[in-house]
Structures are given as C-alpha cells and as structure tokens.
Amino acid sequence: MHGRTAVAGVGESRYYRRGAADETEFQLACIAIRNAVEDAGLKLSDVDGIVSFMDRDRNHPARLGAALGTGKLNFTGQAWGGGGNLGMSTLMIADGALTAGYAECVVIFRALAQGQFGRFGRAPAVARAAGEQAYLMPFGVAAPVVRNALMVRRYMHEHGIGQEALAEIALAAYAHAQHNPRAVRYGHPLTREDYHASRWIAEPFHLFDCCQENDGAAAIVMTTAERARDLAKPPVYLRAAAAGMERWGGVPAFNEPSFPNGRYWHIGEKLWERAGAGPADVDVAQFYENFSGTTLMAISDIGFAPADGIEDFVSGGNIQWPDGDLPINTSGGNLAEAYIHGFQAVNEGVRQVRGDSTCQVPDVELSLVVSGPGTPPGSAALFSREP
Amino acid sequence: MDRYLPEDWILPALDDGNRDFFTSGRLALQRCVECGTVQHPPEDVCRSCQSQRLEAAEAEGNGRIYSFSIVHHPLGPKLAGSVPYNVALIQLDDHPHVRIVGNVCDPDEGPLEIGQRVRAVWTTVPDPHSDEPLRLPQWVRGEPAGPQAE
User: Fold this and answer.
1) Which long-range CB contacts under 8 A does A246-249 form with residues at least 24 apart?
2) Domain of B85, in residue numbers
3) A102 and chain B: CB distance < 8 Å anywhere?
4) Per the domain annotation, does A201 fall within a domain?
5) A365-375: pLDDT as tens digits
6) Which of A126, A140, A153 lies nearest to residue B67, judging by beta carbons?
C-alpha cells in the first residue's frame, strides 16, 4: 500500500472475437504472462508467485508454473467470490504477498476463451438451478445481461437517467478503440444513430450496451517498488486499492438493502482514504463495463458525481479523450477493446501512467481502474507515477 | 395457468430452504423465531441475529413492480420462441424490504411500468423428479384480491 509495490510489466495475447482464437485458453494465458514478464525485462524463472481470479478458473497455477518454467513458486492466490468484480482484488493479494516478503515477483493474469467454454451471454445448459439461481433462472434471469438490466432499470428510474447516458459509455469506448489496433472493434466506429438503431438485448440494454464475448488473456507482473526501479520499464506504483461490500450488500436475488446501486460506496471511501487523494485528483480511469448502465453506477458510487447528476457528468464529451475532464476506458474497454473479464483494463491503466496509451492523457499522475459492480464484492486500484 | 416460459425451461432445484416457496402455492418467506426478522431468499441462519431457528412466514401476495426488463434476445434455444418476454422484480406490500423475481403474465394489460400494482398467481409445473408438482409464483396486474387465483 502507498507505493510499496509496483507493476513492472504488462502483456496480453492477441484479442479475438469469441471462437476466433487458434490458441487454447491455456496457451493464451501463457502468451500474456510471457509478454508481461518480457515487458518488465525479467525472465520466467524470476516469477515466484501466481495470482488470478474467477470462481472455478480453469488455468491452474501449478499447471501454469510447470508449463512456463517459472522459478520455485513461493506464493499462489486467488480472489474469491465471483468474476469481473474481483479483478483489482488480485492486486491487493499480490501487494500483501510482496510487502510481507512471501514472494518477490508475482504474475497476475486472466485468460478467457468464451469460444472454447461457456458463453457469458447464454443461459447454462442445465435443467435445474440451485441456490440463488433457483429464484432467478426459472423466470428468465438466466444470464448476466438480464440481471444487470433489472438493476439498471431501477437505477435509471430512481435518478431520472435517460438512455443517452448509457449511449455515452458505449460511444466513449468505441471512439477510443478506433485509436487502438489491439481492440477487436478497431476499424468499426460507432455513431449515436448506430447505437439507438441497434437491437434490444434486454431493455434498457441495446446491443452496444453489452460487452463483447472474446478469446484472449491479459497479465501483469508486480514486484516491490525497490526492485521495480531497476527493471526495464518505469515502475507504475500501486498507490492504493480497496475491495469489499456494504454490510448486507450480499443478500441474494436483488434483496440487498442498497439495491440497485451502492456497490462502490464503501470501496470509494476506503480507496480515497488510503490514497490520500480524491476523485478530482484522478487523471484517467478504466471502468469495467459488462454493461453500460452498471458503469454509470460505479462512476457515481466511487465518488465522481451524485447519481442524480451522472447523466450530466458523462455527457458533452466529458468522458472522452482527448478533451474530457475524465477520459474513461481509453483503450476501448470491455465494450470495444476486449472482454478479458476486465483485466485488460489494468494494462491500459498502467500504460497511461507510463505514457504508452494509444489515447494518451498528458502527464498522468493518478490512474484509476475499477472492477465490475454487477456482483459483490467489488474492487478498485489506483496507480501512480510517484510512490 | 400455463407456465409463462416454456414447459422445458429451467426449473428450481429444491432444497430444504426453498421447498415451501416452490411447492406450497403460497408466497413462503422465512421468519426468525428469535428476533422476528422476515427474510428472502431463505438462508441457513437469520441474517440479523444469526439464529438457526427459522420458521415459515407467508406473504399475502400483493405488491408493486419495482423493476423490470423486456428480454428480446433468446438466452438459449429453448427460449427462441418466447422472446420478447418480461422479467419483473416485485416489491411486496406486507414485507416491503422483500423483492421477488417473476414474470407478469397479463399481456392484455398494456406495457409494464415501475410502480404498477400486481398480485401473485400460481402456475403448476410437473416435477420430473417427484410426484409432487412445482408451483411457481407468477404475477398479474390489478388491485389486491382475496383468495389467490389458480
């Protein structure tokens, strides 16, 4: 915390449309990790820790360590309790391991090939739904898009938010992706008219409100601040991170007291307190967009604007590079770069601090990355140029 | 009434906590014997006082639409003939902190809006794993009624 650890390298596989990858999901993971280690100027044999997230993740650390020829593993860990909500919790785990001295060089990654395994946009092929899902799936709440639609419809109703606010999230992502050759939607610009003309998926979400389904992997290397200063790239310090949920934020099936929003109130408070900074100090931000509307909630909850003012905040180009006050999702985000469960956003947040983004904000001191608000517990990380 | 979604669509997997809700034909909630808190969905412990002494509590089955979505994209082949369909979140009159997911099954009543009054009706679905059928709550718009209609 407070700059004692840093991101030393970032890497990714090529990002593909779902089903278009020639590589297996495991091969994609290996490529991203190898690229991140190389970016840092390290060797795979320097790696002594592996961290990831996603319940039931398929890419086991022992298999990865063996395949990649890492050094002795001194630490493995996984953020627990969901998927895209957990992305930045992995950095807290690595930060803890590094500052405690349990490991010296930790790789964090997420590989996701929806063309090879179950698609997040489809109901699972089951006859029966258990646990929380018993109250959802039999009634057609059978994929994240419907679940998030129920949250966002209520949020829009309570705060007088119109469809244009959702459009702004999609338009920003697509505008930024047109500068980023890594983006799957590079070369496919989106106009406001295209957005409104696109088909409904689950109201209030049009097609372009929904993240893509992709094949790909993203990875970073974290080490101590001291060691990072001797490596190939300028260190990008972890200034602060926060994770968790409100008390009773985890009551299932839309029965949490703070529904429909509130997932990032607590995380914002902790993050700004730990960082000694506030939303006004942030130069650029990456917000997980499984769906445009939940991104609005996260922007508001974490402290950038009250919910009643979120439509004004995202309008008028305010979240678009190069002229907006808070450019968001500057690589194209989950909507237009790739949906690697939000982890590709870390690579972009780091590149913004280094000065390597394809939509580079000048002189970035603080770069924010926020994971998904669709499911508790959530997480967020703040990167800095100075420790 | 017929099931709103297809007969072969996903059914709830029954367990001791949810059996009443999905088989009794009543809106079965859960009440803590120790502190009286009513909770939904059911849990193995009271979320307020952590007691494990929990009993059935019944809601009257009247409420309002708290949120909804019209789903246009079939999430699987079995839903291909069912789109567009609605999904609604119902806030109960007698337990306003409780919200229940369901479908509003009265297409002649016009478009759904947040705040519209609804009441529970029941659809009976054969359970391939049991002699006892499942009874799923569904919703129709209208003012609170007396005995719940079949």
Assistant:
1) A246/A376, A248/B47, A249/A376, A249/A377
2) 19-141
3) no
4) no
5) 999 999 998 88
6) A153
In a domain, A177, yes or no: no
- B149 assigned to some structural domain: no
Query: CA of B81, closest CA in chain A: separation in Å?
Result: 13
Residue B13 domain flag: no
* CATH number of the domain enclosing A12: 3.40.47.10
The string of pLDDT tens digits covering residues A162-179 is: 999 999 999 999 999 999
Domain count, chain A: 1
Tell me the nearest-neighbour CA distance from A380 into chain B, angstroms: 27
**Arithmetic mean of pLDDT, A124-129:** 92
Confidence bin at B145 (pLDDT 50/70/90):
low
Give the separation between CA B146 and CA B150, rounded to whole angstroms: 12
Domain of A103 in residue numbering reads as 5-118+211-384
Give me the interface pTM, i.e. the ipTM: 0.96
CB atoms B67 and A203 under 8 Å: no
In a domain, B27, yes or no: yes
A288 is a catalytic site residue: yes
Tell me the pLDDT tens digit for each residue of B50-59. Answer: 999 999 999 9
User: Does B8 map to a domain?
Assistant: no
